[in-house]
Fold SEC14-like protein 2 isoform X3.
Amino acid sequence: MFSQANQVSALATSKTQSRLQSFTYLQEFRKNVQDVLADMPNPDDYFLLRWLRGAEHVMGCILHAPCVPDEETEDRARNETLLSARHVPDARSFDLQKSEAMLRKHMVFRKEEDLANIMNWQPSELEKKIETFIIVFDLEYLGLKHFWKPAMEVYQEFFSTFENNFPETVKYLIVVKAPKLFPVAYNLVKPFISEETRKKILVLGANWKEDLQKLIHPDQLPAEYGGTLTDPDGNPKYLTKIKYGGVVPKRYYLQNQMKMQYEHTVSVNRGSSHQVETEILFPGCVFRWQFMLDGSDIGVGIYLKTKMGERQRAKEMIEVLPTQKYNSHLVPEDGTLTCTEPGVYVLRFDNTYSLVHSKKVSYTVEVLLPDKAFEEKIQKL
């Protein structure tokens, strides 16, 4: 009993010392960034702790649901110097220099994006401070068209911006209606999500509406998502408050096409073809290609080889996607294929029908791999 009492006493002393050390770091951090805090609406200790902790983790239709702080968080908000062990990591993990650089970079971003006027909202009806939030990703309509490379770069930029400018603000990232393609999409953006944020990603299965109510109160959810919120006319989508995604109207286009950079350029002689071989090691990978012509049309098809180590004619291979003619000198062309079996796939540029003209083609070929951990989760849902 005496030994156990000593252990408890030692643990309490250690925690107290850690809190005091953390408080010292916090005060020093506040002193280092005092010149920029005047531009922040509420630079309390919790705000500074977000950057101290976030610097250790960061390496860019969505529904937003506020997370109301628990009692311990409210106590901390009322008394900023009361640092709970639940919210304060070991002080030895704090990197003041990295945290300061991250915050100062955020201040530049804040001014560029005019966040002072955008991010000052607090729901008056709650009368509580909102410190974290939940994002629900509805991926029902996720398809191969979303794997267009410029679109994926937008997703990557979103997560990168998010991680670097809003650390420690996410409680959960919830995915509902995840299709089989989700592990591939996740693997593309995973490098831009910190390990700490990855732990907060929840993929819900067939009973997602019931499970969602365990994480978000029904009075904060549209009826469409298992909650109680509806429009005055009874619409379960709750359109009076939520703007659902969709196809971008052409009136918002800044330009009709994007300038692309390609990894390869070849000249396909008249009466001939050019084959690009790509090995797929396991099912579930996404084969993606993009190309543009400098001139007239060309045929493009996808084949699966039946013999390894030698070039095969089109008729000797398995036709996966029939050859079609493209006039991509006007706009870039792209395509994707979910590979159902392993093997060597061939992107074939066909100019055999041309008796006079050769064709210059610029192209890029990629294989998008699924995240195996999430792939197994999806299979079990």
User: Anything to note?
Assistant: The chain has two domains: 1-251, 264-369. Residues 31 and 37 are 10 Å apart (CA to CA). The first strand starts at residue 62 and ends at 67.
